[in-house]
Design goal:
12% strand, alpha/beta, DNA-binding, elongated, Rossmann fold, 479 residues, isomerase, DNAb Helicase, Chain A
Length: 479
């Protein structure tokens, strides 16, 4: 074990702080008390840290007042005070940190043996424990250094030049799939945590599937965690949006020759795309992180976006109350987005209290467990279709009239295309507001309003089939 710690180096760093207390500020950005191997050194550094934070002198006199003889023997303080001065303190500090990480990894090896062999726990639970512990070590070992103004202005100038080279385009990040929404948001940018929330039946899953389709069509890799719906059902919806074959026809296999031909071509095209679906039904932040990282290791996958349907179905880690679990999940997703430098889109539920308001358009306070989600998210969008509520109201009035033995003639018209509002309730780096789209119900497809500058983002396969021939299409298996 002596290769993962050095008492002399620890003593030299503590001595350096005593002789030059100004150094402690930089050292505190790298080391914690537990990084020292000797318990007495841990205690002394903890006392030094507390003195510094209390704006007290970090010297021998004040340290002696705050440590007990049972924790720190007087001879240890004398050894620290008599240590030879060092010049490159930071190099010694990094050695201590390096040894601390190696000791934690050695401890993890013991934990792996314990949970995998000695403890009678399921393999998935053991794997989750190991992944969680490894992530703690990796995040604790990550250190960031302060940037000076020259470095910041240089990086900012490089960013502006990069944007200029794009020709002042409104789309900077990954496309949302919709012209007006791209224009309002500049797309979903690297490191963004995007929350898309709505009440049931508003089409939030359809919306993110349309977004996923737009990105895979552009050659990007998309990871879709479906915690509520099997992959086959997602694929049926995506195919309806892609081929303009009604979803109900796809479900029943009720298609003519042209539609079968379009479907086959759509399969051939999608088989070349990079869409990865996890429909296991339950996942926690550690498992999600591990799966995304594994896919991203292969550069050919070009992972550019992660979608989670939906956030409240994710499992927590450890025995915490649900609000704390959701807080940990949203924070974990934000950290993963920054680490991977990709946008992460998570669907979220809304509180049903909004159903009691005259205007049922959602707002930030309607987010379930809203505090943590609202804080971590860079963009929060709500999906709202007024016709959904109109249809429900008419159905309720009709039932009430029927119960009273009265006749009621509904004025509601069930339109094949309904107007949808995408309400941007929060955008950290841009304006809030509303973007209007059309929702084509039979295709579960959102499209740009026809007044938009661009045509609807959709791919429709057309072919002329010989109706005299028997339909005999070999449909590829959905994986």
């Amino acid at each position: 074990m002596d290769s993962v710690y050095s008492i002399n180096i620890e003593r030299a760093v503590l001595s350096s702080i005593l002789f030059n207390p100004d150094e402690i500020e930089e050292i505190l950005s790298i080391l914690k008390p537990k990084d020292f191997y000797l318990p007495a050194h841990q205690k002394i550094f903890e006392v030094m840290t507390n003195l510094y934070r209390d704006d007290m002198p970090v010297d021998e006199e004040f340290i002696r007042k705050r440590v007990s003889a049972k924790d720190v023997d007087d001879s240890i303080l004398i050894e620290i005070l008599s240590a030879n001065p060092i010049t490159n303190t930071l190099a010694y500090v990094k050695e201590i940190k390096d040894g601390s990480i190696k000791r934690e990894l050695a401890s993890l090896a013991t934990t792996i043996k314990k949970v995998s062999i000695e403890d009678e726990v399921p393999a998935n639970e053991a794997l989750d424990t190991i992944q969680g512990e490894l992530y703690k070590i990796s995040t604790d070992s990550a250190t960031s250094e302060l940037k000076d103004m020259q470095e910041i202005t240089g990086d900012t100038l490089s960013y502006i030049k990069k944007m200029k080279e794009l020709g002042n385009q409104h789309l900077i990040g990954e496309t949302t799939g919709f012209h007006d929404l791209d224009k309002r948001t500049t797309g979903f940018n690297e490191g963004d945590l995007v929350i898309i929330a709505a009440r049931p039946a508003m089409g939030k899953t359809a919306l993110v599937l349309n977004m996923a389709l737009a990105n895979v069509e552009a050659g990007k890799g998309v990871v879709f965690f479906s915690l509520e719906m099997p992959a086959e059902q997602l694929m049926l919806r995506m195919l309806a949006a892609k081929t303009s074959i009604p979803l109900q026809n796809l479900r029943k296999g009720d298609m003519d020759d042209d539609q079968w031909s379009n479907l086959s071509r759509a399969f051939d095209d999608l088989n070349q795309k990079k869409l990865f679906v996890d429909d296991g039904g339950s996942v926690n932040i550690n498992q999600l992180r591990a799966r995304v990282r594994k896919l991203a290791q292969n550069e050919d996958n070009n992972i550019s976006m992660v979608i989670i349907d939906y956030l409240q179905l994710m499992q927590g880690t450890g025995n915490k109350d649900r609000h704390q679990e959701v807080s940990d999940i949203s924070r974990g997703l934000k950290m993963l987005a920054r680490e991977m430098k990709i946008p992460i889109i998570a669907l979220s539920q809304l509180n049903r209290g909004l159903e009691n308001r005259p205007d049922k358009r959602p707002m930030l306070s309607d987010l379930r467990e809203s505090g943590a989600i609202e804080q971590d998210a860079d963009i929060i969008m709500f999906v709202y279709r007024d016709d959904v509520y109109k249809e429900r109201d008419e159905a309720r009035k009709e039932k009430e009239a029927k119960d009273k033995g009265e006749e009621y003639k509904s004025t509601f018209v069930n339109k094949p295309v309904e107007e949808a509002e995408i309400i941007i309730g929060k955008q950290r780096n841009g304006p809030i507001g509303t973007v209007k789209l059309d929702f084509q119900k039979q295709y579960t497809r959102f499209v740009n309003k026809q007044s938009s500058a661009d045509a609807p983002i959709e791919v429709v396969f057309e072919s002329v089939a010989d109706t005299n021939k028997e339909t005999n299409i070999d449909v590829p298996q959905i994986l």
